[in-house]
């Protein structure tokens, strides 16, 4: 799988370099540089075809739209993964806290109900298999 990404990365780097060179040719355009310009344009077309071939190899890869938003904002897309993990850990801690609170509440509720309704709670505990009935 990594070689597919390596191939795409290589083609993208070549394409970007070709565009950079094309920009230099266009900014200092002279009629004598028409041949070089045509050659660079042909390289661009070939580069786009190479990138399209890589796309076909990676058709099953999906990238969350938020990653592209990070890139558009000039942020490192690897930060997206880091921030997702941090949000997941925070949510995990929050849910764990709720579970612990509910367990404490259940325990206290059972204790208080046992004081008020001892017979009913003994039956409840017997049904649940917690304590045998007295």
From TrEMBL:
Give GO BP annotations, semicolon-separated. Answer: regulation of transcription by RNA polymerase II
Provide the coiled-coil residue spans. Answer: none
Q: Where in the cell is it found?
A: Nucleus
Q: Which domain of life is it from?
A: Eukaryota
**Keyword tags:** Activator, Nucleus, Transcription, Transcription regulation
Q: Answer yes or no on keyword Kinase.
A: no
Pfam families according to UniProt: Med10 (PF09748)
Asked if Transmembrane helix is a keyword of the record, the answer is no
Q: Which GO terms describe its cellular component?
A: mediator complex
InterPro entries tied to this protein: Mediator_Med10
The terms under GO molecular function for this entry are:
transcription coregulator activity
Q: Please describe what this protein does.
A: Component of the Mediator complex, a coactivator involved in the regulated transcription of nearly all RNA polymerase II-dependent genes. Mediator functions as a bridge to convey information from gene-specific regulatory proteins to the basal RNA polymerase II transcription machinery. Mediator is recruited to promoters by direct interactions with regulatory proteins and serves as a scaffold for the assembly of a functional preinitiation complex with RNA polymerase II and the general transcription factors.
Describe its assembly: Component of the Mediator complex.
Tell me its family. Belongs to the Mediator complex subunit 10 family.
Protein name, UniProt field: Mediator of RNA polymerase II transcription subunit 10
Please give the organism. Answer: Nyctibius bracteatus (Rufous potoo)
Q: Which gene encodes it?
A: Med10
């Amino acid at each position: 799988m990594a070689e597919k990404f390596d191939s795409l990365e290589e083609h993208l780097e070549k394409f970007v370099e070709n565009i950079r060179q094309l920009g230099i040719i266009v900014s200092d355009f002279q009629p004598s540089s028409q041949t070089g310009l045509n050659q660079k344009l042909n390289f661009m077309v070939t580069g786009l075809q190479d990138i399209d071939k890589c796309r076909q190899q990676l058709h099953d890869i999906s990238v969350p739209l938020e990653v592209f938003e990070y890139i558009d904002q000039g942020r490192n897309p690897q930060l997206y993964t880091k921030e997702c993990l941090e949000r997941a850990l925070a949510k995990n801690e929050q849910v764990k806290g709720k579970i612990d609170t509910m367990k404490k509440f259940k325990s206290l509720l059972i204790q208080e109900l046992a004081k008020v309704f001892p017979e009913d709670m003994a039956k409840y505990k017997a049904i649940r298999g917690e304590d045998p009935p007295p």
